[in-house]
Amino acid sequence: MEPPERADSIEVDGEKWVCDSSVDHKGRVPLRAHTGVWKASLFIIAIEFSERLSYFGIATSLIIYLTKVIHQDLKTAAKSVNYWSGVTTLMPLFGGFVADAYLGRFSTVLFSSLIYLLGLTLLTMSQFLPCLKACEEAICHKARKVHEIVFFLAIYLISIGTGGHKASLESFGADQFDDDHCEERKKKMSYFNWWNFGLCFGVILGVTLIVYVQDHMSWGAADIILIIVMALSLVIFTIGRPFYRYRAPSGSPLKPMLQVLVAAVRKRNLPHPPNPAELYQVSKVDHGRLLCHTEKLKFLDKAAILEGTENFAEKQSPWRLATVTNVEEMKLIINMIPVWLATLPFGICVAQCSTFFIKQATTLNRKIGNDFEIPAASIFSLAAIGMIISVTTYEKILVPTLRRKTGNERGIKILQRIGTGMVFSIATMVVAALVEKKRLSVAEKDPLKGSRLSMSVFWLAPQYLIIGIGDGFTLVGLQEYFYDQVPDSMRSLGIAFYLSVIGAANFLSSLLITVVDHVTEKYGNGWFGKDLNSSRLANFYWLLAAITAANLFVFVFLARRYSYKNVQRNVAVAACPPANNNNNNQGDLVLEIEVKR
């Protein structure tokens, strides 16, 4: 049976066809058995694996390249890394907006992959073409200007590519699951866990295999591996095109929210209707789902107050009258702001993994046996291993158990999962402080003081594993939270909001270091000296533990008062009971949909 091509109102079999406004690669209503779910999302996870391998293979060794090859001093190199990291974490906000408003997620991923590939190609050329190499001599004391220009152009092209990837790819994968189908809805909750499972394997290979090739072979050889892996993954992603479900871009998601604000201000003097059912609502929307009215932020409800008859309302400007759904979407964004702020201390703790934790590893004994030495950046792989353990345990053991006990499809609410990870971040900072205190005591007694210590690098393993386990709760929870709780038309931007937590936390970490350094130097011995042995990092870790612990109480307060998205469930599926999850969804109904021509 072919899907109907006329734009008539028909009753659709929700078990056979996907009725969530998505289309297949030919623009038709997708056939459930042939599109979406794992058969499509595995293609998407494959390209995320290669992107993370490339990104972490470059990012973890960037400061080493800048100091050893380009010969920047440590301060300049650190600034260069911070600027690049800042741009890379902010670019998804732009990429997500473009995907949601204009290009769509598939096209955005495709174009950003090509830009990413162009950046990797330039990076490789700068290692092999004589006119672009750092210098012609075997021993180089200063890189040529043309090499610097091409190198920085290449890594910033990779930043632009990452911006499109990170905002669109994860949300495109989640789009392959129908929220109105009970079985697919459960699979979607597992999707974010397995997405991060694949991501972590990319990180592990990036900070072990790629970093090892950079250290023991050459930077160019590592770049060739990255470009081959990225090109193959792009081919795989394109092969999956017939299996994907697509959503058309819906225009700027910011415009309807601005209209709600303007309409609410214009009608600020009108009284609230005694019954919320008197507020203006439509029977269906072109993109996304209808939302139910909630009692919070009631001032915004005034945007949906009818000033005339229902027929007259349809002729009113959206700058004067908004629907209940548009008002509730605005409430969702406002409710997210406190949660976003409350997750920043966790992000600051995570930021230490790629800065001070790595710097500590460079001072410790990294030898395994007599000959093999672990690259300092490879210790980061322990965090990814911890995250894999956490995600797998959560998915296979905790979720089934908690589902039976709580009756919640997710096992626990999303914010409860995020808060659990915050507890692990506090434990990480406590352990890190104790390990640093031990390292300093060894440094004072070690005869090779000022050089590498006899203390094993694996003393850092507990803090990396604990923060990795916390990431499996908080970072995965944040991905799910921002994707699920934003308006349906803003899901690429939702993933960008999650990434912006990490980006903003990195900037805040730098700011906190500057402030602490200034204060401690003014009132005594500074906590940050010229090297680790003259610093007092343990005190800084205790400070982070205290800040994160205090913030946890704030987060719990916000989580207890938080109202989740209240969606009207529209599409019924045979033998599918109403959802019992955080969203307080209504019972299922049979929907008459307008099928795309």
Automatic annotation (TrEMBL):
PROSITE patterns found in the cross-reference section: PTR2_1
List all membrane-crossing ranges.
Answer: 83-103, 109-129, 194-213, 219-240, 339-358, 374-394, 414-435, 455-483, 495-520, 540-559
Topological type in the membrane: Multi-pass membrane protein
Cellular component, GO annotation: membrane
Which keywords belong to this entry?
Membrane, Phosphoprotein, Transmembrane, Transmembrane helix
Superkingdom in the source lineage: Eukaryota
Q: One GO molecular function term? A: dipeptide transmembrane transporter activity
Q: Does Membrane count among this protein's keywords?
A: yes
- Compartments where located: Membrane
The UniProt similarity line reads: Belongs to the major facilitator superfamily. Proton-dependent oligopeptide transporter (POT/PTR) (TC 2.A.17) family.
Name of the protein: Major facilitator superfamily (MFS) profile domain-containing protein
- Tell me which species this is from: Manihot esculenta (Cassava)
